[in-house]
Design brief:
Elements (H helix, E strand, L loop, with lengths): L3 E5 L3 H12 L3 E5 L3 H8 L10 H10 L3 E4 L2 H4 L5 E4 L14 H13 L4 E5 L7 H12 L4 E5 L9 H6 L4 E5 L2 H10 L7 E4 L1 H32 L3 H9 L20 H14 L5 H25 L6 E5 L14 H11 L3 E5 L4 H8 L4 E2 L3 H5 L4 E4 L4 H4 L3 H7 L4 E4 L6 H6 L3 E3 L4
Parallel strand pairs: 1-2, 1-4, 2-3, 4-5, 5-6, 7-8, 9-10, 9-12, 10-11, 12-13, 13-14
Antiparallel strand pairs: 6-7
Bound molecules: nicotinamide-adenine-dinucleotide (NAD).
The site of nicotinamide-adenine-dinucleotide has 27 residues, from helix 1 and helix 5.
Length: about 425
Amino acid sequence: MKKNIAIIGTGYVGLVTGTCLAELGNKVVCVDINKNRIENLKKGFVPFYEPDLKDLIKKNIKSKRLFFETNLALTIPQSEIIFITVGTPSLENGAANLSYIEKAAEDVGKNLKKYAVVVVKSTVPPKTCQKIKGIIKKYSHKPFDLVSNPEFLREGSAVLDFMKPDRIIIGAESKKAEKIMKELYSALKSPLVYTNFESSEMIKYASNAFLATKISFINEIANVCEIVGADVEEIAKGMGLDPRIGSQFLKAGLGYGGSCFPKDVRALHQSAGTNGYSFCLLKSVIEVNNNQRKLVIEKMEKMLGGLKDKIIAVWGLAFKANTDDIRESASVEIIELLLGMGAKVKAYDPIANKNAKKTLSEKIIFCDNSYKAIAGSDVLLIATDWDEFKKADFLKVKKLLKHPNIIDGKNIYNPAKMKKMGFNYISIGR
Ligand code: NAD
């Protein structure tokens, strides 16, 4: 049976969740406090780059299943299921900032007029759902059930990930809420895992922390490979064929970034600490990740004999390919470090230039194509593995660079081939 659904927060998770649930036939109203964003969405303008999303939004607006609204008071009373998908960014000390979700819970409580299932989709530390339940109860006398339903979509393939999830986690306290969630997701044909709030919250953090650990692990292996003369790509291949290990997330590079891994690892580390447990492993995962940014700068410094006044071309600003998200992007963090050392930076990203300009404008030169960035530069740093960079015209690259120096932070090129072409080429762990 199709449901009336409210989505609070139209970021990557909220907008994808709302649009996909509308596509499944539900009537969905997406609410945000950002008026400008809502006005644009009503016209079909998507605030960020995500493959397939724009067309799906337009289609569902047209079929009158997807609506956008700033006023919760108009939306909550009619909703049977209310998703909270607001941000949970890091506080200064690494803990998750719960102020947005607490405010959203207060707003839900104040506007609840009949029974509804309130679903926490934002990533939150264990015990948060209990707290959210308490906040809603404080402002409402209407019956409701709270559900923890963390999201695992990845930016760049978010629509596909939502429609074909590996698993759906349902942390609930009532059979009624479990049944409603099961019905809602029945079209997705994915395994459902029923558990309590705390385990559901922990599944999300443990998953992200484990993936981040894999990345930091392979980066440390890469660093040892450079000393002993081994090749990290071959190590990853050899390791990955063991099904107990798996081949994914064994890509050495500049360290993980984005809007989730860094903040979620910090938040789990912090949450464990607050609950009296010192999570030593995660402390190292974070340290290794920070160090990975610095190591590439050391390599560059050595290659160029210092960085002051050197011109660095950077290809890629997004935290990974197929997104325009630059939150905690390795590229942006490395650029800040380079600038601090007196280097000059010319950068290009196929779609993230606009977002990067918000933090880096005035500080670096933004180029509207990859070759403009390398013209006259002392070195090219590959910082995001966009397909476009994999297909570069190397003769052109060599001609345009002041010196044929390439530091490949994503291991996208073949070292032997690059050497043969006359490049002074350095990558990670090879
Ligand atoms: P985001 O920052 O892109 O979007 C959050 C949105 O919520 C913003 O548009 C903001 O204006 C809105 N908002 C804040 N307070 C509000 C309120 N009281 N009422 C209405 N709207 C409000 O965030 P995101 O990247 O979509 O992440 C949301 C949550 O999902 C986070 O907890 C994140 O960790 C988690 N998550 C994110 C991803 C991802 O890839 N981005 C994947 C899985 C889980």
